[in-house]
Amino acid sequence: KLILGVPGAAACPVVLGALCGFPTGARAAAALYDTGELSAKQCTRLFTFINNPSSAYMVSAVGVSLLGSRRLGLLLWCVSLICSLGTALITRFVMPDDAKDTAPAPQPVRMGAEVFTGAIGTAAQSMLAVCAYVLFFSAVLGALQSALSGVYLPPVLSALMYGAVEMSGGIARAAEVPNTAQAAMLCAALASWSGLSVMCQIITVSHGRGIAFLPYLIAKAAQALTAAALTGLAVRYLFPLLPPENVRASILLP
Predict the structure, then answer these.
(1) Could you give the angle at which helices 11-19 and 24-34 cross, rounded to 10 degrees?
(2) How many angstroms separate the Cα of 94 from the Cα of each of 87, 90, 202?
(3) pLDDT tens, 1-10?
């Protein structure tokens, strides 16, 4: 609370959001709202900085598999966390806690087999929702790609268009940009933006809890611009000072 200005109970969503990817942080915050440990306003502020791409996705999938550099993937993940931390520090003053804003009445603690079965059912619903949004927006992008098959789109514009809707597809196209610095900047921006698919997942998680979505949208747009700028500076000024990276060895590392 001293640094980020959030209650101690919010530590779990903050850590899970930094490590485990979308929409784990939002789901954890919503669960704390349901148990009465966080208010709707506190969850609204938490949502602006606890939803980040996972370390495994950024380092292994984006860095090693798409960009051919574990070091670059680690940079992209660190940049996303830095942007989230900056958002947390700014929103601490822009969206301070209100003494009148109270958390809902805590629900009684349940014990027994229904807790286990309920957890499994909720997890299954979450997985289905995530897969449904990914499939839906992938189909939308496929239809859009078919409609624009006769139109030439520059690689950068294509990556931005696809990434605005679905993050993974946009990042895959961003990695194909010939200029490494531009590719990294695009990947950083799209990962921080997260795409409409992830945003719909966040709306689903927060539904019926009085959590405002507009601050999240503004925060993600600002994080995307900041992430692109920080990545461009790091690739230009930091990477030339580092020793060459053995890409073949980095792929073989666990």
Answers:
(1) 160
(2) 10, 6, 22
(3) 667 777 888 8
